[in-house]
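Retry 2 of 3 after timeout on previous attempt. Resubmitting structure tokens to design endpoint.
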């Protein structure tokens, strides 16, 4: 990593109040700066959910496509998805029999907004599937 890249990231951490200067040393005509964490207790709120479905990959695709019109959303080659809203981020991981969701945000209120957006879309997709020909989600893939 270049010195410029490190310097930039240290400056961002300082401006956010997450690190502070701890000490400096003179080394071969230059000054080394050492930093310490301001708090060891910083944690982002996190929520996890598991949604049982026979078609988890399809739900990842639908969520990324639909929410991607209004937010940053992407799918990886292995089928996982990431949706980044103004209030936080949700990662979507399909398994053989369920969709695993992990939402993070800077505070509890923002986390609730992320959960609400993702939940509303999932419920809407599920309702649409159940209404088609009276066939349930588990039967359609």
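Retry 2 succeeded. Sequence:
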């Amino acid at each position: 990593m270049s010195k410029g890249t490190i310097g930039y990231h240290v400056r961002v951490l300082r401006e956010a109040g997450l690190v502070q200067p701890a000490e400096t040393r003179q080394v071969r005509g230059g000054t080394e700066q050492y930093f310490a964490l301001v708090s060891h207790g910083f944690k982002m709120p996190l929520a996890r959910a598991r949604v049982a479905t026979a078609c988890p990959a399809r739900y990842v695709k639908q969520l990324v496509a639909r929410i991607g019109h209004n937010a940053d959303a992407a799918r990886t080659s292995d089928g996982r998805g990431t949706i980044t809203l103004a209030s936080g981020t949700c990662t979507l991981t399909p398994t053989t029999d369920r969709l695993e969701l992990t939402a993070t945000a800077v505070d509890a209120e923002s986390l609730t907004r992320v959960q609400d957006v993702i939940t509303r879309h999932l419920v809407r997709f599920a309702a649409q599937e159940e209404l088609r020909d009276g066939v349930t989600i588990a039967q359609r893939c």
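Attempt log closed. The beta strands are 19-27, 30-37, 46-52, 72-75, 81-85, 88-94, 98-104.
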